[in-house]
Design goal:
The complex is a heterodimer of chains A (about 200) and B (about 375). With about 200 residues, chain A is an alpha/beta fold. Helices cover about 35% and strands about 25% of the residues of chain A. Chain A contains eight helices and eight strands; from the N terminus they run αβαβαβαβαβααββαβ. In chain A, strands 3-2-1-4-5-8-6-7 form an eight-stranded mixed β-sheet, sandwiched between helices. Chain A starts with 9 loop residues before the first helix and ends with a strand. Chain B is an alpha/beta fold and about 375 residues long. Chain B has an eight-stranded mixed β-sheet with strand order 1-4-8-5-9-10-11-12, sandwiched between helices. In chain B, helix 4 packs antiparallel against helix 5 (about 210-225), helix 4 packs antiparallel against helix 8 (about 275-290) and helix 5 packs across helix 7 (about 260-275). Chain B is globular and about 65 Å long. Classes of the chains: A alpha/beta (about 200), B alpha/beta (about 375).
């Protein structure tokens, strides 16, 4: 793993590019800390992480990162209001026990939030469900329905509707398919996953 | 104690009397210590390791008292996670102990051992003594403080009370406060010592030491250092072979029929060769008094207000029921509240509290990574 942004997953690279330099960042579900590492090394951010998997935490700590082993579904509540400039939740919303609670927590501990998630309305998913009649399995949503960690599937349209209902402002959104950024036209059909930049 | 008296410890005499939390002060304090690795010319590479309750300054190499490896030989040395090719590692025997630093077995001002005239000390007093030692060494700021168990308490206390000297804190299998259960186990050990007729209100240095009481105290404590899973795996209900080599069998008496009994008896007895019973009383007392929040007005976060620039790494073990993951999460919350850079991980290891001393490769990686390259 090198320290450049080019090795990051497309959604993480977009977030890395958009996070303001020198900001205080919490990466929820940070894994081994790839994004944190880039934010610290290239943007001078003070990055903190939360990750549930002990091995991933140990690896992140051994890279010199500040990561707490914890469960976002519970432990985000322990951070003070506005503790961070930016809170990041990448590819984790759909695994949350209470996605709305988690979203509220993100916007409470961070002045703004970046959220990325796989879009269940991506055309391949629709096609797979339509023709196969079974829960789709894809690169971004691997695993059978009975063993997947992804328990709250959502679409881009669903997410927009929740944000509108809850008065959350969208200050940016970006869409990806096949590992590349695509335009926003018909994104709910065309995008495999999405990144949203949010403000309360 | 006979074994330690013949050994010449490396010591340093503190110039000034040491002020204590009790309001008393201790004059003529000697600190026994060991160092490993070279101190950099700018003195920036010092790592202070704090030892646990019955530990000592002999972290690595051969311990001259036991003739066995130092207690953290696996962690400290050239090319090891705490690499003595890069760091100047210092470890001092805590005051109140009996491995060369001033304690109840030391000679007091009246020419006799202090015994119970030794003042009751606290974890913070132990830390103060070591800061005074660093003053004498001319070391102002430490690259890192590292400690497990009571060593972790000292590391946290040092960060709270001397944040300007503390670059990083690595606290393993420890707590910010002794619980009722922790105190209860210690009290049982102390009562075992005091119930030994040889204890003589602490004035036993001319005669036989209260070895039986101390052995029982150690046996009880040792159980708390292990996990049920670890004990079951190591001993199960297996029977101990007889001294004459014959196969183990139930004696229908009270010999050490079970391997676990034999093991505990050995742990208890061998401990009395190297440790002073009065030191055990004083150090367990210091641990029981430890409550970092109480020292700082009742809110743990307030203890760390000055330590925002110190990096923390806390490690717990899933089978440690003495100082639990929940205990350590309280510390993490307090550090989060003051926005200190903190890492925390619960590692999986079968050995209970003692895991921090044993073969846990994930711990090695965390220690090495956290101390920095």
């Amino acid at each position: 793993m090198s320290g450049t942004g080019f090795d990051l997953r497309a959604d993480l690279a977009k977030i890395a590019a958009k996070v303001p330099g020198s900001s205080r960042v919490l990466d929820v579900g940070c894994g081994e800390g790839d994004l944190m590492h880039v934010l610290q090394a290239e943007k001078g951010c003070d990055a903190r992480g939360m990750e549930i998997d002990a091995d991933a935490v140990a690896k992140a700590v051994s890279r010199g990162l500040s990561v707490i082993q914890g469960d976002a579904n519970r432990d985000l509540a322990d951070y003070p209001d506005g503790a961070f400039d930016v809170a990041i939740l990448s590819q984790t919303l759909q695994t949350a026990q209470r996605p709305e609670w988690l979203l509220n927590q993100l916007l409470r501990v961070g002045r703004e939030a970046f959220v990325s998630f796989p879009n269940f309305a991506y055309w391949r998913m629709r096609l797979s469900l339509l023709t196969g009649g079974r829960m789709p399995i894809s690169r971004h949503l691997p695993g059978s329905w009975y063993e997947t960690a992804n328990i709250h599937h959502l679409t881009i349209t669903d997410f927009r509707e929740l944000l509108a209902q809850r008065g959350v402002a969208v200050s940016g959104n970006w869409f990806f398919a096949n590992g590349r950024e695509i335009g926003s036209v018909n994104a709910n059909w065309r995008a495999e996953h999405a990144v949203f930049q949010l403000r309360r | 104690m006979a074994m330690t008296s013949a050994i010449q410890f490396r010591t340093l005499m503190l110039e000034n009397p040491l002020p204590l939390d009790s309001g008393r002060e201790l004059a003529g304090v000697e600190i026994a210590y060991e160092t490993y690795g070279e101190l950099a010319p700018d003195k920036s590479n010092a790592v202070l390791i704090f030892h646990a309750l019955t530990g000592d300054q002999f972290v690595a190499g051969t311990n001259p008292v036991t003739q066995r490896n130092g207690w953290w030989e696996r962690m400290v040395g050239p090319g090891k996670p705490i690499d003595t090719k890069r760091f100047h590692v210092i470890c001092a025997n805590v005051i109140g102990s009996c491995l060369g630093s001033t304690g109840p077995s030391s000679i007091g001002p009246d020419g006799a051992p202090y015994a119970m005239q030794f003042p009751v000390i606290t974890i913070r007093d132990m830390v103060r003594a070591q800061m005074a030692m660093l003053d004498a060494m001319g070391i102002e700021r430490l690259h890192a403080l590292v400690g497990g168990s009571m060593g972790g308490m000292q590391a946290l206390s040092c960060a709270a009370n001397f944040p300007e000297r503390t670059g990083r804190v690595l606290a393993i299998a420890t707590t910010a406060r002794h619980s009722a259960q922790n105190i209860a186990f210690h009290e049982m050990g102390r009562q075992a010592i005091m119930a030994d007729p040889n204890w003589q209100d602490g004035d036993y240095y001319d005669g036989d030491a209260p070895a039986k009481g101390l052995a029982v105290a150690r046996m009880a404590a040792h159980i708390t250092y292990l996990s049920e899973e670890g004990l079951t795996e190591k001993f199960g209900r297996r029977l101990q072979d007889r001294p004459d080599g014959s196969k183990g069998a139930k004696s229908f008496g009270f010999d050490a029929d079970f391997q676990v009994e034999s093991y505990l008896r050995y742990q208890g007895l061998s401990f009395t060769d190297r440790f002073d019973a009065n030191s055990y009383l004083y150090i367990t007392r210091a641990m029981d008094y430890f409550d970092l929040a109480e020292e700082h007005g009742g809110l743990l976060a307030d203890a760390f207000r000055g330590a925002k620039d110190t990096r923390f790494c806390l490690v717990s073990f899933d089978t440690d029921w003495l100082y639990t993951t929940a205990d350590m999460r309280e510390i993490v919350h307090a550090l989060n509240a003051v926005a200190a850079p903190v890492s925390f991980v619960e590692l999986s290891a079968p050995y209970g509290h003692d895991s921090f001393l044993l073969d846990v490769p994930a711990l090695d990686r965390v220690v090495e990574g956290f101390l920095g390259r």
